[in-house]
């Protein structure tokens, strides 16, 4: 298949796949926790399992690249099979909707599978999307994904507002979305794994890039500092507004609107501009700006005491999340050699998963000794520290680093 044809086909399938992916975003960000709190009244352990599921899959992704290399499979079909397995797990939750542990484990394993295959998708973007348009094409599908999440957010909020027992229909929507997403991924160009420059198939082989590549190492440290603060705060958005013991106790519809619809709507309208910015501005600069917006959003949300401040905080968080999604999903394509993108991404995903596993239990444990407001200040400080760290590194960058992390460069 010619490169232009591969690009068109990848973009077409990813555009359609973004619709079920948006439904799953709504589940992971709002409806999973909302049902856990309002229907099953689950404790911190069960909620932490759900909130940590995506992170568990990201950690496992470190082993996906070498296992694929051993299997001599194609990237797209392997990713598709993992997505369909996630859909099957969520279907199990839908089959037994009144069993709290089946609900938690079914949705959690579904999210686990979807996050585990992310490095494979990043490798596909690197191979099939041209460098100068990668951010643009990725962000267009991000807009569609956000629109689907917003639409499903309205639908799910309306459904639960009519009768909370309607959550069973949502479970079937999540399961169907998993299978539909897998089918579109299966139809992507069947790229055989080509790693002729390096035949290392050890399960931990991807970690060697942390030692070899200083720029990669620097950005990983910055992501860790920022991610801990951001993920702790994100774990508590629904808890803060929905749990009666914290004093706010908003109705289901309002919680879904504020935490599910508002940020995704802002993400939808700003994804495309962030994609253009990513293609034209240096990575260090983009990352620093995003960190500041994230910190401000978290502080406004938790320090504010009205619907306006909660919506404003979530709107700014969605704005930053749009740019964060683009940079998180594509920044390794600026650094990694063509054959090693999946390995770079698997290391990045592994560390994202590690902090994601730590964040929910840390968040709930912190609430035992401090208020939401104090915790939000700590989270904001951690995020701003990450910006300061990469700013210092950017000012001392050599010509090679500026070339690699600047706009429009190809390795």
TrEMBL record:
SUPFAM superfamilies: MFS general substrate transporter (SSF103473). Keywords: Membrane, Transmembrane, Transmembrane helix. Gene3D superfamilies: MFS general substrate transporter like domains. The chain crosses the membrane at residues 21-43, 49-69, 102-125, 137-160, 166-186, 218-237, 257-277, 289-308, 314-333, 375-394. InterPro entries: MFS_trans_sf, Sugar_transport-like. It comes from the Bacteria. PANTHER family: INTEGRAL MEMBRANE TRANSPORT PROTEIN-RELATED, MAJOR FACILITATOR SUPERFAMILY MFS_1. This is MFS transporter. It comes from Brevifollis gellanilyticus. The lineage of its organism: Bacteria, Pseudomonadati, Verrucomicrobiota, Verrucomicrobiia, Verrucomicrobiales.
């Amino acid at each position: 298949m010619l490169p232009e044809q591969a690009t068109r086909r990848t973009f077409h399938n990813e555009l359609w796949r973004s619709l079920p992916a948006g439904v799953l975003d709504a589940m992971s960000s709002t409806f999973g926790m909302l049902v856990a709190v309002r229907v099953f009244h689950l404790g911190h352990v069960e909620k932490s399992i759900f909130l940590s599921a995506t992170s568990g899959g990201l950690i496992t992704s470190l082993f996906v690249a070498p296992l694929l290399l051993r299997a001599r499979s194609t990237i797209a079909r392997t990713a598709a099979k993992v997505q369909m397995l996630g859909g099957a797990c969520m279907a199990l939750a839908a089959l037994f909707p009144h069993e709290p542990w089946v609900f938690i484990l079914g949705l959690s394993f579904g999210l686990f599978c979807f996050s585990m295959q992310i490095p494979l998708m990043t490798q596909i973007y690197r191979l099939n999307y041209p460098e100068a348009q990668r951010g643009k094409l990725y962000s267009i599908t991000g807009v569609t994904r956000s629109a689907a999440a917003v639409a499903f957010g309205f639908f799910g909020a309306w459904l639960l507002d009519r009768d909370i027992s309607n959550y069973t229909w949502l479970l079937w929507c999540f399961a169907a979305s998993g299978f539909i997403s897998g089918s579109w991924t299966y139809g992507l160009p069947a790229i055989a794994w080509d790693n002729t420059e390096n035949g290392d198939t050890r399960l931990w082989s991807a970690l060697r890039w942390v030692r070899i590549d200083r720029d990669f190492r620097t950005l990983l440290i910055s992501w860790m500092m920022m991610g801990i603060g951001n993920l702790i705060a994100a774990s508590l958005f629904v808890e803060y507004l929905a749990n009666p013991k914290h004093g706010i106790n908003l109705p289901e519809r309002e919680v879904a609107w504020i935490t599910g619809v508002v940020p995704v709507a802002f993400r939808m309208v700003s994804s495309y501009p962030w994609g253009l910015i990513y293609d034209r501005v240096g990575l260090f600069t983009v990352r620093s700006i995003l960190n500041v917006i994230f910190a401000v959003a978290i502080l406004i949300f938790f320090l504010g005491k009205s619907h306006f401040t909660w919506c404003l905080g979530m709107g700014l968080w969605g704005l930053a999340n749009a740019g964060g999604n683009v940079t998180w999903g594509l920044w390794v394509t600026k650094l990694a050699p063509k054959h090693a993108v999946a390995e770079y991404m698997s290391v990045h995903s592994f560390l994202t998963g590690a902090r994601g596993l730590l964040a929910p239990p840390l968040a709930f444990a912190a609430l035992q000794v401090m208020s939401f407001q104090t915790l939000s200040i700590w989270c904001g400080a951690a995020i701003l520290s990450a910006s300061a760290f990469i700013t210092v590194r950017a000012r001392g960058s050599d010509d090679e680093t500026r070339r690699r992390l600047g706009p429009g460069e190809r390795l």
